[in-house]
Every structure is written in structure tokens, then in C-alpha cells.
Q: What sequence folds into this?
DNA sequence: TGTTGTTAGTTACAAAACCAACTAATACGC
DNA sequence: GCGTATTAGTTGGTTTTGTAACTAACAACA
């Protein structure tokens, strides 16, 4: 229980979370960077399109809680790499519909598999009994509602 | 248990950790930014000096796992703000000894208190029973040894 | 000693993130 | 319909970060 005078940085929740986040992200980040020249936001956008199917930039922005300028640039980069295709919506011409190309889908499958593997490596470090509790705690802290009212998968 | 085809981003550990880290950092970050014009690295350096007393940039870099260039810039910024003072070591003239000024100490006390408060706010969200387990899990994942072999406090 | 290697810390340049202002299209109220 | 507000998405300029090369001081060992 952190106390003003005595508490250690190592007990401070934001610090622990940031360190843990960095630790778990590092190797995976290197993978998609080296392999596909992707940035973190690009991977997240790719993941959303791979997982949920066709979406607009706005929907991804809301779902992933990433600012629209970052989405915009990530989409441009992914298009440049031929992972993503887009087309302006016929009905509402402000909107652009985004989806993965074949190449993008292949990258998505590869990266998902990789992600699942890294996930297991890190989860293996925490005691079996604590695993579900850990995810639950993190969801509560991050204020993420359990996957329900989200864009329909596929 | 994330599976290649079906797992949701919301189950993926790095994602959860990053979201949780962002959530817990945001308000506190705003506080030290608005109040003292500090960046995250500056707060961490300030914290180390406040908590452990006089240190060198290298020691902070090792302890906080922050690259030396970031430390260098943070120290320069903190010195500019009159929070930190430095003096070249008499014996080993490569080294600079760093310590907090009175103003720096006051900021440290304020920010520590604030940090402890934010910590409690977020910890309150997780069930009493899970709290110690959560910190333990995070330390394991971040590969942080429990505070033992560190620079002597004070 | 003096040559080579290592360590502490800074600087410079490129990559990325942040924020604010912008365009183009739609919705809303009358 | 017409003026105003709102929404989707992009662009530009400034901060921050990341990376590599640099300086200065010490260490090690022939």
C-alpha cells in the first residue's frame, strides 16, 4: 500500500503496468517491425480489420481508442504496403470502407499466431491460478467492457 | 487462452497491459505536466532522486531502465527548472552526482502524495483479494526483482 | 608509460507522436 | 431550402523519442 513517504516506485501501479507493457510488447514489436516494417498503430489497425472485417477509420478509432490522425496515417502506410484497400462509401461519402487485401490477411494470420505465442510465453510466467484474475483486473483498470457491444466480428 | 483464429484483442496480454497502463497514467501525467511542466522521464528521474537520494545518471538509468540519452535530457530539463543540482565527482571525473534542490524536494513530496492517491483510486477498482496478486504478477511479467539489491535508500 | 578498451554522459539527425487547424460531406432546426 | 452544427478524415508544424556517433575520463595490461 503506497504511502507518501515510503512507497517504492516498484509498488506504484502505473509504473508496474508501464514496465510490464513494455516488457511484453518489445519482442512482438520487433517481429512486426522487422518482418513487415509495421508500426504499433499499423499492427492494431491490421488486427481490427482482420478480426472484425470491413470497418471505417472512425470505427477502428473508437474501438481501439486511438486518435484519428494516427489511424489516418496508419491506414495510409498499410495501403502503401498493399495490406489494406479502401473505397469511399456510396451512401455516406464522408466515410471510407477499409478491408484487408490477400496479402494483408496473410500478414494478419501470421501476426495473430505470433501474438498468441508471445501471450502464452508471458502468461506462463504467472501462476496458473492467477491468470484469469490478472486479465480480469486489467480489464477493470483499463475500463474495457468484456467483448460484447462491439462491431460485429466478421 | 488466445487461439490463433479466434482470440480477441481484449484477451491479448500486451494490449491489456498497454491499455491499463495508459488509463492509469493519463490523469497523473496531466497533473505533473500542468503543474510542473514535466515529462514522464523527468518525473521518474525526480522520483529516483527524491526516493534514493544522491545518484548518478547511470544509476538512475540502470534502476529505472531508461536509456541514458533520455536521462540526460530529463536531467537537463530538471536542472533548467531548478529542481535538480549537479556536480562532477571529485574522484571519478566522468561521473556527475545529482540531487534535488529544495524546490525539487517539494515537488517530489507533492507528486509522491499525488501518485499514492491515484494508485489507490485504481487499486480500489480491483477486488481486495486480487491486489497483492496483481502486483506480484506484474512484477514477474516486467521481470522486476522485488526491491532488494537496489541503490541504498536515502 | 602508452596503447587499447571501456564507461559516463552529450549531441545531432531522423523517425514518430501530438495537437490544432483544415476540407468535404451530412444532419439538424427553422 | 438555407444557415449552422457535426462528423469523417487529412495535413502541417511542433515536441518527443530513438539511434548512432561523439567527447572525455578511467582501467587494464603489456
A:
Amino acid at each position: 500500500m503506497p504511502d507518501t513517504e515510503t512507497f517504492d516506485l516498484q509498488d506504484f501501479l502505473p509504473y508496474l503496468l508501464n514496465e510490464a507493457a513494455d516488457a511484453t510488447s518489445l519482442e512482438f514489436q520487433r517481429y512486426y517491425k522487422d518482418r513487415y516494417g509495421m508500426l504499433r498503430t499499423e499492427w492494431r489497425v491490421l488486427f481490427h480489420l482482420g478480426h472484425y472485417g470491413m470497418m471505417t477509420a472512425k470505427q477502428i478509432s473508437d474501438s481501439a481508442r486511438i486518435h484519428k490522425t494516427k489511424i489516418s496515417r496508419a491506414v495510409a502506410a498499410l495501403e502503401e504496403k498493399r495490406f489494406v484497400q479502401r473505397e469511399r462509401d456510396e451512401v455516406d461519402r464522408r466515410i471510407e470502407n477499409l478491408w484487408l487485401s490477400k496479402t494483408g490477411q496473410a500478414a494478419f494470420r501470421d501476426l495473430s499466431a505470433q501474438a498468441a505465442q508471445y501471450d502464452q510465453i508471458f502468461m506462463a510466467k504467472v501462476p496458473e491460478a492467477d491468470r484469469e484474475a490478472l486479465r480480469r483486473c486489467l480489464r477493470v483498470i483499463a475500463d474495457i467492457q468484456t467483448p460484447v457491444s462491439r462491431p460485429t466480428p466478421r
User: Anything to note?
Assistant: Residues 56-58, 61, 68-69, 71-73, 75-76, 92, 94-96 of chain B lie near DNA strand C (CB under 10 Å from a C1'). The first strand of chain B starts at residue 55 and ends at 56.
